[in-house]
C-alpha cells in the first residue's frame, strides 16, 4: 500500500527546492546587511549524537539544539511547550502544564525515546518514559535533540531519538541571576542562581553553579464535561513545583577533573477523577552523578560516571492512594581514543532498576550490563561512523544493535548524510507485571531505521530535509485479544501483536535578513500500525511551526504559529482530535546592563483545541517577567 509520505514526496520536493533557493538568496542578503552573530561564528558542538563533543557540521545524525538564549527569551514555563516548537516533535497532555505529558519524537511513542540529564538516563521504569511534567525548565541551560535510533550508543528505548538536557554550568568569575514572573491562570514563578569559577593555582580550577526555583499556578479544569461522570470535575487544577540543580567540578591536575551534578524537582499537581474529591499527584525526581574526566594519554580520554536517580509518584485520589517509585543506579566507563583524525570509542555500562509500589503489584528489579564500540572516520570531505552495542539482562536476554552512517561535504555549506541502524525497547514493568494489563512473556520491541538527509548551512541560513523509514516489529499495544494463558485479563492486555512503520519527511529552515530572523519546520509523516493500517494514537500526519522575529538594539519581538492536522485519540481511529493552529507572540527588552523584561502571549486567538480527547488546554494566556543575570 502506498504510504501518505510516498504520495507527498514529490510535492514536498518542489517547495523544498524553492526554500533552498530563497534561503541561499537570503544568506547573500544577510551577509551584506548584517554582521554574523557570535553564535554563527563559533562552530556549534553536539555531545549526544556520538557521546563526545563533535562539531555540528560533522554530526551524521539529524539533530536540533535549543540554546540558553532561546530558552531565556522564550517566556515558556514548561519544557514540553518549548519542545513542541521543534521539528519532529509532537506532544500530548491531560490538562495544564502540571498534568501528565508525553513527547513523541518522529512519531515514536513517549516510551520509545530516551531522556538524559547531564548524561544520565531519567524516567520511570513502570511507564518506561520520562516524567516530563516534573522536569523544571528553569534549571535547564540547553537541550540537544538527536533523531533516529541510537540504541547502539545508549541501549534500550532509543528508537525514535534521544533528548539530552544539560543543567547550568559555572564559568570563570562570579555570575548571579534572578528572575520573576506572573501570568494568567494565577501563574507565578521565581528563580535565582549563582555560578562562577576561580583558579586554585596555575593549572587547577574550581567551577560551580547552583540554581533554585519555585513555580505555581491556580490552573483550570483538566477535563471537559464530555469526559463523563467518572472524570469531569469543574474545579481548577493547579500545581506547585520546587526545584534545585547544581554542578561542581575541580581540576585535580591538568587534564584530570572530578565533578558532581544534581537535579531535584517536586511537583504537586491536581487532576480530575470525578466530582467531590481533590485528586492530586505528587511527583518527585532526583538525579545525582559523580564523574571523573581523565586525559590518560595525549590521545586517550577516559570518563567514569556513577549515578543514582529516583522517580516517584504518590497519588491521592477518589479511587484510592498509591505510591510508585523507580530507583536507578548507573555505572559507566567511556574511553575515547584518537587515531589521527579518527576516533575509537569503547564503552562499558551497568544499569540497575528497582521498582517499589505500596501494594506490591509491580515490584521488581532488573540489571542490564552493556558493552559498546564505535569508530568515527573523517577523511577530507568524507565522514563515516560505525557502532555496535550488546545489552544483556536476565529479564529480556541479550540484544545486539548496530549503526552505520556516511556523510559527504559537497561544499563547505552543503552536506548529504545516509544511515542505517537497529534499535530495541525492553518492556516496561507495567507491560510485564501490572495486574490485568501486563504479560510476563512480553518481548522487547525491535526497530530498523534507514534515512537520508541533505543539510545546507551558510552564515545565518540553515536548511535541512530528511527522509526516514523506521520499521518496528513486536510492537507492544493494548489489545483486546490476549494470549490464552492470560485468563485473568478479560478486558485486554499489553502484548506483542503488531508492527508499526514510522515514515516521514522532516523539513527545517532558518535565516536572517537585516533585523529579522525567520525559521520554520514542517513534518510530513505517516506513523501507523501496519497490522491494522491505523494511524498511531495522538500523532498527526502534518505538523510544524513558523516564526518571525525582529531584533534591533535592546528590543526583540516575535510572532510564531504551531500547527497540527487531525489526529486520533485511540488506536482504533474512532475518536478524532481536530487539527489546530496556535498564534503566539513574545518579546523582551533590555532595560540596562544585565536587566531585561520579557513577555509571552500564548494562544493569542484563544483557539479551543485538544491534545488528548476531552482534556482541556489553556486559552489565551499571558506571562510577563523581569530578569537579572549575566
UniProtKB/TrEMBL annotation:
Membrane topology: Multi-pass membrane protein
Ranges of residues in domain TonB-dependent receptor-like beta-barrel: 205-603
Domain TonB-dependent receptor plug: 58-162
Record-linked PROSITE patterns: TONB_DEPENDENT_REC_3
Keywords attached to this entry: Cell outer membrane, Ion transport, Membrane, Receptor, Signal, TonB box, Transmembrane, Transmembrane beta strand, Transport
Main subcellular location of this protein, as a coarse class: membrane
InterPro entries on file: Beta-barrel_TonB (IPR000531), Beta-barrel_TonB_sf (IPR036942), Plug_dom (IPR012910), Plug_dom_sf (IPR037066), TonB-dep_rcpt-like (IPR039426)
Signal peptide as annotated in the record: 1-32
NADP keyword on record: no
Compartments in which it is found: Cell outer membrane
Record keyword Ribonucleoprotein present: no
UniProt record similarity statement: Belongs to the TonB-dependent receptor family.
Protein name: TonB-dependent receptor domain-containing protein
Species lineage: Bacteria, Pseudomonadati, Pseudomonadota, Betaproteobacteria, Burkholderiales
